[in-house]
Structure formats: structure tokens, C-alpha cells
């Protein structure tokens, strides 16, 4: 395993550098989260997809492909639903545990990071600093307008 300059990457004292998987078509890994199946999910704006990585085998699966999968960050609900921000589309999307997909919200210029509240009854997304209205949380509007799908099981 070599860095761009041809030397092996150095690790901080007490840590080790380990290759988990060879280079891939992720293009970028903007946000990551572990799914209910134990795999590591990666959001990719430039790859316009959401990928799942099996850490035990190194196998990579495209879970949501272009263009719907364009994603900057992602989170899982307790029910196993996958929710992500589509930064360039200005949307928040959801793929239910049984595979159905829909937009939860649109018209959110620069929807970037995403998180669930502790009780998982509401979702919050911050805008990118380059977008109009940056730094403003958008989730209260989702709840008032009924965009939040339902209370997850658990």
C-alpha cells in the first residue's frame, strides 16, 4: 500500500494503517454510516450512488445507483430505513427497509449533513456554506408539513 509519493503511509503512535478494500468507483465517500446489516454504507455525491461495503469480505454493492443515489450524507432509522441528502438536487430521500424510494423533501438548496433526533421522530439537515441560507436547520418545516414518514419501530 503506497501513498501518492510512493512511500507506505505512516500511522500515528498506537494506530495501524490497514487496507480494507482496493480502490473503487466510489469517486468520493462524503458520509458513512453502519447499516442494520452491519455493512458500512458510503454516500457519494460525485459517484451519484450509495454503496455498501462488507468489511469481512471487502465486497461492495451499489445500493442506490445514479441519479437517485447522489448523496452527501446518510443515516438509518431504527426501522432500517435509509435517509440521505441529495446535495446537488436539494432533496432529502428515503429508501425503506423493503426497498421503496421516495423524496421526503425537495427545494432544500444545499441539503448537506443529516441526523435523526434521539427519539428518531424527526430529521435534521443543515445547508452547505455555499448555499443560500447556510447553517439553518430545515427539519422543523418537515414536521409541520407532514413530510416525516412515520415513527420508526423500536
Overview features:
154 residues, Methylamine Dehydrogenase, Chain H, four-stranded antiparallel beta sheet, disordered C terminus, single chain, 1 helix, globular, mainly beta
Any overview of this molecule?
- The protein has 154 residues and is mainly β.
- The chain has one domain (31-144): YVTN repeat-like/Quinoprotein amine dehydrogenase (Methylamine Dehydrogenase, Chain H, 7 Propeller), CATH 2.130.10.10.
- Helices cover 4% and strands 32% of the residues.
- The chain has 1 helix and 10 strands, in the order E-E-E-E-E-E-E-E-E-E-H.
- It has one helix at 139-144, and strands at residues 31-34, 40-44, 49-53, 60-64, 73-76, 82-86, 91-95, 101-105, 111-116, 123-127.
- Strands 1-2-3-4 form a 4-stranded antiparallel beta sheet, with no helix packed on it. It has a 4-stranded antiparallel beta sheet with strand order 5-6-7-8, with no helix packed on it.
- Strand 6 and strand 7 (91-95) form a beta hairpin.
- The longest helix is centred in the last third of the chain and has 6 residues, at 139-144.
- It is globular.
Question: Could you describe the largest sheet, including whether it forms a barrel?
Answer: 4 strands, antiparallel
The CATH class name reads Mainly Beta
Write the CATH fold name.
Answer: Methylamine Dehydrogenase, Chain H
Oligomer: single chain
